UniProtKB/TrEMBL annotation:
Species this protein is from: Marchantia polymorpha
Residues making up the signal peptide according to the UniProt record: 1-31
Organismal lineage: Eukaryota, Viridiplantae, Streptophyta, Embryophyta, Marchantiophyta
Protein name as catalogued: GDSL esterase/lipase
MF terms (GO), sorted A to Z: hydrolase activity, acting on ester bonds
InterPro entries associated with the record: GDSL, SGNH_hydro_sf, SGNH_plant_lipase-like
Record Gene3D superfamilies: SGNH hydrolase
A Pfam short name: Lipase_GDSL
Family (UniProt): Belongs to the 'GDSL' lipolytic enzyme family.
CDD domains reported in the protein's UniProt record: SGNH_plant_lipase_like (cd01837)
Keyword line: Hydrolase, Signal
């Protein structure tokens, strides 16, 4: 087969596809960014995993959740977008789909394993069936299945007489390079190829669409699957985020454990996280952000359900003993990550100081256009706008006949905390901006190198 320098193509099916691949090869890499994000965590970054696992049973499936941005509930524990949503938007990706979501998921630029109430250690008598170890197992299965699909698609293209795309080594579909875990990449090659062949995205190839669809449905099915998943090299080049541990504290508080009881299992929380880091490292992860736990003693839920007196409150009005315990845990986690950097020399492992990040917003909020700190936007009107028996979006009869109605503040943008547990979209946007700035990382690190084209959020 001869293709003139002007890239004229004959219109036989195989020639059409081969020509497409040559045209795709002329596209140069336009940015140096992470090509995919793999997220592990709890409700703070759950984009629908809990809904997929337990449909109709989660509060985030109902208004007023989602009212600010989506204008409908989107199974997120906020009035709008989460921090992970803003990070995805920064890189120009669609919002991260949960691993367990069927039918509509598109994992081309990553996958979300986070699920509400997830803990670092196994707490079988608590409200989660998806601890961090299970999320990691799901990731391992996901990677195995992705590899099989990509290899199968490459083999099918080879059968058609087309040089297959394999691990970025073929110059026909994309230009790939890796530096410190950051990938240079064009548009996902299988998505682009699918669009060219079966959706007529490029007018010069629109005449091939009908012929290709009718004559090679097997190729269409293969590319349909391949375009919705990461390339195999994305598992090494992608960004991994693990932010979990809050529910481990909440589990103890819910069971009315003492501070000493909770302190005793802090090393187990740390071990759960370090085991996860090792496991994903063995699967190729090379850039890993691990988040510490925020100031849970400042949350309306804990300030309401934990019996205390004024002597236990610090100058900010937070439960000092619990925040002290959290800080102790964060110190242990940071040290464990220092040790991991020695054990896993090929990885960049970064600690994210969620405690200072969240505390600074709560108590310096007027600097950021947010005027309300430790009071919920959505909840039963009270000191903290929180009632554990009638929560955000609910009504109920309590305390021998008292009828309570949850109310939502008129301007969530002015509030830091949404429902007593979780943060507002305004707060999440602030968190994302600070994370992207690198200000709260313990190890100098930039998520947006100078040659990465990023969107403003």
């Amino acid at each position: 087969m001869t293709i003139p320098s002007g890239r004229r193509c004959s219109w036989k099916l195989i020639t059409q596809v081969s020509c497409l691949l040559l045209v795709l090869s002329s596209h140069k890499a336009s940015a140096t960014c992470f090509p995919a994000i793999f997220n592990f965590g709890d409700s703070s970054s759950d984009t629908g995993g809990n809904h997929a696992a337990f449909p109709t049973e989660t509060a985030a499936e109902y208004l007023p959740y989602g009212q600010t941005y989506f204008n409908e509930p989107r199974a997120r524990y906020s009035d709008g977008r989460l921090t992970i949503d803003f990070i995805m938007e920064t890189f120009g990706f669609r919002l991260l789909d949960p691993y367990m979501q069927s039918v509509t998921s598109d994992f081309a630029n990553g996958v979300n394993f986070a699920i509400s109430w997830a803990t670092s250690r196994r707490v079988l008598d608590y409200r989660t069936l998806f601890p961090l170890s299970t999320q990691v197992t799901q990731f391992q299965l996901f990677k195995k299945e992705v590899t099989e699909i990509i290899n199968g698609t490459s083999a099918l293209l080879a059968k058609r007489g087309i040089q297959p795309y394999v691990n970025g080594t073929s110059g026909t579909t994309t230009t790939q390079a890796s530096t410190a875990g950051v990938a240079v990449t064009t548009q996902h090659p299988y998505k682009k190829l699918y669009d060219e062949l079966f959706r007529g995205k490029n007018d010069s190839f629109s005449g091939a669409v009908e012929t290709t669809t009718s004559q090679d449905p097997e190729l269409k099915i293969a590319l349909e699957a391949a375009r919705r998943i990461p390339l195999t090299e994305y598992f090494e080049q992608g960004l991994y985020i693990i932010s979990i541990g809050t529910s481990d504290f909440s589990a103890g508080i819910a069971k009315q454990q003492t501070l000493l009881d909770i302190e005793a299992y802090l090393p187990d929380i740390v071990t759960g996280i370090t085991n996860a880091v090792k496991a994903i490292y063995n699967e190729g992860a090379r850039t890993i952000i691990v988040g510490g736990v925020g100031p849970i003693g400042c949350l309306p839920v804990q300030l309401t359900v934990i019996t205390h007196d004024a002597t236990q409150l610090d100058n900010f009005g937070c439960l000092a003993p619990y925040n002290t315990l959290v800080r102790s845990y964060n110190v242990q986690l940071k040290q464990a990550l220092v040790d991991l950097r020695v054990q896993l020399p090929l990885a960049t492992i970064v600690y994210l100081d969620n405690y200072q990040l969240q505390h600074n917003l709560l108590f310096n909020n007027t600097q950021n256009g947010i005027s309300v700190g430790i009071q919920s936007c959505c909840g039963v009107p009270s000191t903290y706008n929180f009632n554990d028996k009638v929560q955000c979006g609910e009504t109920g009869i309590v305390d021998g006949g008292l009828f309570l109605v949850s109310q939502t503040c008129p301007n969530p943008v002015n509030f830091t905390i949404w429902d007593g547990y979780h943060y507002t979209e305004a707060a999440n946007r602030y968190f994302a901006r600070q994370i992207l700035s690198g200000r709260y990382f313990d190890l100098p690190f930039s998520l947006i190198p100078d040659n990465c084209t990023a969107n403003q959020i």
